[in-house]
Specification:
- The chain is an alpha/beta fold.
- It is built from 13 helices and 14 strands.
- The strands form three sheets. The chain has a six-stranded mixed β-sheet with strand order 6-7-8-3-9-10.
- Bound molecules: adenosine-5'-diphosphate and magnesium ion.
- The site of adenosine-5'-diphosphate has 11 residues, from β2 and α2.
Length: 374
């Protein structure tokens, strides 16, 4: 961080956080411990339990994604981290400190140490780009020179140096989110929260914002916790992922592991249509669960790790004693690692199927039988 143009805390007069009783590299950046959140119903209406018991931690320095459908509890969960919501039960620890125990000065210090970006950017339309980024520094009481020394390098970092006198209405969605990111970084947070930050952007702009977040994570060592309903976002930048469904975390792990071998039904359904080669509809519709005489078996092969580096397909083709058809295939990247998927078919006779199964067992190739067809 010492070489970063925006690490000017000592000079710019921002007080270091009084929060950290004993932060340590071993303490998770964020820990949810038995967290529930119940919203009381108004005027005698029934209430709603948005979070049903969350135990989860966010590793320091990582980009962690929490993915789930609309209404799953993602925004509620992330709002607990900067004290915008208070848990009904359990504890939310940021850098080892229980958010619920903080008052006034300490809570303000926490909010400075946790930046947040939003789906609809939440910029002030009456303020210029420069003044939007300056706002948290004005609130923190910095003088004009200190603010300028901080805002200019941030605008440079997000690629908006030439737009500092513009107003939000004059910017594209991607540019607005860059302003949001610069503003979130103004107080030099150690944690950046992102609530659907790319959900209002087109795919190309999404990629450029994700690239910016990845660079910030790498260059500033900033921990990122992002929530999204878009698998593509998690796949592109998150090293770790948790899947939330109806207020509960149903699956978590390294993104690559969860995406290549999802265990929970919700994860599978969120993933459908994303990774792996998709069968053409005309073929998928005619697939049968059991073979009839003369049928072929359709198998999806997945390549990653060691199996991606060997000529397994040519070995399979020569070893099988059946012709092999290639029906669909993709090569993809998940959390920066290559992942290939190929759907093939061959005769579903007992001897050929047994030979193929032996080959899969010997080589460690991951396979899935999709069904049978003529
Ligand atoms: N302040 C609130 N009062 C009552 N219910 C709420 C409140 N905030 C959120 N909820 C409910 O909690 C559930 C989870 O909401 P939210 O965390 O916003 O989900 P997500 O961000 O995953 O779409 C939803 O059913 C929502 O209606
Ligand atoms: Mg939400």
């Amino acid at each position: 961080m010492t070489n970063s143009p925006i690490s000017a805390r000592a000079a710019d007069g921002l007080q270091p956080l009084a929060l950290s009783s004993a932060p340590s590299d071993r303490v998770a950046m964020v820990a949810f411990e038995g967290v529930t959140k119940h919203f009381e119903g108004a005027n005698g209406q029934p209430g709603f339990t948005a979070l049903g018991g969350i135990d989860f931690s966010v590793a320091r320095g990582a980009i962690t994604g929490i993915i789930g459908r609309s209404g799953a509890g993602k925004s509620t969960l992330i709002r607990l981290v900067n004290g915008l919501e208070v848990p009904t039960a359990g504890h939310v620890l940021v850098d080892g400190v229980d958010v619920a125990t903080l008052e006034d000065t300490d809570l303000r210090a926490l909010r400075r140490s946790v930046g947040m970006i939003f789906q609809h950017f939440n910029l002030l339309s009456s303020r210029t780009v420069y003044d939007n980024v300056a706002l948290p520094l004005e609130i923190a009481g910095l003088d004009k020179a200190a603010i300028a020394a901080r805002v200019r390098p941030l605008l440079d970092l997000v690629g908006l140096s030439d737009k500092e006198r513009r107003y939000p209405a004059e910017l594209s969605g991607g540019q607005k989110q860059r302003v949001g990111i610069a503003r979130a970084l103004a107080t030099e947070p150690k944690l950046l929260l992102s609530d659907e930050a790319t959900s209002a952007l087109d795919p190309e702009t999404t990629q450029s914002i994700l690239e910016l977040l990845r660079n910030i994570n790498r260059d500033l060592g900033l921990t990122v916790l992002l929530i999204t309903h878009e698998m593509e976002v998690v796949k592109t930048i998150a090293s770790d992922v948790a899947v939330i469904d109806r207020g509960l975390i149903v699956e978590e792990g390294r993104t690559f592991d969860v995406f290549t071998a999802p265990r929970h039904e919700t994860t599978r359904s969120l993933l459908s249509g994303l990774s792996g080669a998709k069968l053409p509809d005309a073929i998928a519709r005619k697939l049968k669960p059991l073979p009839e005489p003369g049928d072929r078996v359709l198998v999806r092969l997945s390549f990653f790790g060691a199996t991606a580096e060997q000529p397994l397909i040519s070995k399979l083709m020569t070893g099988l004693g059946s012709d092999v058809n290639i029906i669909a295939g993709t090569i993809d990247e998940i959390a920066g690692e290559p992942y290939g998927s190929l759907v093939i078919s061959y005769a579903a006779t007992p001897d050929i199927v047994a030979r193929a199964d032996r080959f899969y067992a010997e080589t460690g190739l991951a396979t899935e039988v999709l069904g049978y067809g003529a």
